[in-house]
Amino acid sequence: MNRVAKFGLAIVIVFMLMAALSPLLASWEKVQSQDLIARLDAPDSAHLMGRDQLGRDVLSRIIYGARVSMLVGLVVVSVSSIVGVLIGSIAGYKGGWVDRIISSFLFNVFLAFPGILLAIAMVAFLGPSVRNLILALSVIGWVGYARLIRAQVLKVREYDYVTAARALGASDFRILLKHILPNSIQPLIVQASLGMAGAILAEAGMSFLGLGVPEPIPSWGKMIDDSREFWFTAPHLFIFPGLMIALAVLAFNFLGDGLRERLDPRQRPR
Amino acid sequence: MRGLAFTLAKRLLIIIPVMAAVVTLVFLLIHIVPGDPVRQLVGENATEEQYQAVKAELGLNKPLITQYTDYWQGLLRGDWGTNPITKEPVLKRISARYPATIALALAAMLLAIAISIPLGVTAATHRGSAIDSASTLLALLGISLPGFALGPLLMLIFSVELGLTPVSGAGSPAHLILPALTLGAAMSAILTRIVRSSVLEELNEDYVRTARAKGLPERTVIYKHVLKNGLIPVVTVIGLQFGVLLAGAIITERVFSWPGVGSLLIDSISERDYKLTQGCILVIAATYVLVNTMTDLLYRFLDPRIKVD
């Protein structure tokens, strides 16, 4: 793996640790406890990232915010990749009318909505909650994985060892599970890493719009929206959460690009 | 030629089932709500008569299939529903906001093109230099920094500190600068990378060697020969990214209080105006489908190497 990808991996590990260990790194009480006299205080030695509009410690909220970002990202990537692999491999393996319905119609309908719009629409009618947010982001996320796996399966199913397995009398299910999928799954790892970046960005965006994580859970996107009135008097309120989102997105993108290069030498930048 | 016409017709015809599915999905969204949208709209204190009146007004007391056919008929007649309280027609509110969203997306796109083509070409012709590294860094920042963090940062620098642009709102071309820059940042980043790699690829072609051998100035070689061929993939990405801009506009409009369909969509959700929410989603999705189809067709015209079948 190249240096940039290693750097990405290091940051990803830091964020994952921050998310897993957040109750040890910051107390929930600090996340919630308000001190209106000290509101909007700039960063100092006691509060490294300052205090917010209600006098709460920004650093503690950033640490708990990592928990939301990483959790939503991981669940969304897991759910959408499982659904995507299932639907994509059926389309690619079965071919014929099944493939035509899935790839020409179903994919196009889901791709007819620009990214976050379908998620906004779903949460608008379902109401904001972590569960609904994960559901909405998974609904928009699965198509990318399905298209990728379909293309892979279409290629791999023509290989001689698949024909050999079929000649030996293996069932469709066995051929798909034991022979085709293990040889098609590699690009999915890259897609999953890039998908984490997308999911983190989408979660923050939805929370910024008031359609993501509800109170009292802190989310980086919501921290920026909540401090809207104080962007110019206390810029630390949007700079720190913004920096965290950018860093997390950058890290997963670096990691994804590095993995792609490693797995497919043709992708090396010129 | 007949093959080309057939492809065009086929590509345009595929819009119909996709749009029909989009309309169906938008219609069904209101029915998958676990709660009661009418109760949320009228509030807990409304009388049973008021509740039933609003339910009838929204047509939610009819069987699902009747509601569905009514929805289609309304859409085709231009009757997209009214706000049950203010009686304001949905289509009127959306059409008042639509031009602002298109203006924002177009401005963002033009800005992105104006930044990325010279930057991408310079990065490719000076491969490995400081300017190449700087363009990579800028591109990375553009992709990773979300609009709701970049927007406030630009406002703080250019409006509050330097006093060069208005902070937010609309009214003059100056109001458009920061929202367009915020919205176009990610697209600039993506385009710069694509222009760079596309130009790098073309620079290895035989025609470039020929042009240089016959003594053409490097500027002419790059801008007249290389860029012409190198821009083909760029056009596709511009078209696809325009659709992405429409979605991104929802966030940018909220950051800058820009009066477009995106901010109307978010307002409609907090006002619980379901017909308006459905209308906004439909308009954004329809524009997206149309732009993507047009891009696909344009791509076929630009590159004769793409097979018409």
Structure write-up:
The complex is a heterodimer of chains A (270) and B (309). Chain A has twelve helices and no strands. With 270 residues, chain A is mostly helical. Chain A has one domain (3-16, 79-267): MetI-like fold (Orthogonal Bundle). The longest helix of chain A has 37 residues, at 58-94. Chain A is elongated and about 75 Å long. The two termini of chain A are 17 Å apart. The mean pLDDT of chain A is 89. Chain B is mostly helical and 309 residues long. Chain B folds into two domains: 2-76, no CATH class; 100-302, MetI-like fold. Chain B has helices at 2-13, 15-29, 37-42, 48-58, 64-77, 90-125, 130-144, 147-161, 173-203, 206-213, 218-256, 261-270, 274-302. In chain B, helix 9 (173-203) packs antiparallel against helix 11 (218-256). The radius of gyration of chain B is 24 Å and the shape is flat. The N and C termini of chain B lie close together (11 Å). The interface between A and B is large, with 44 and 50 residues.
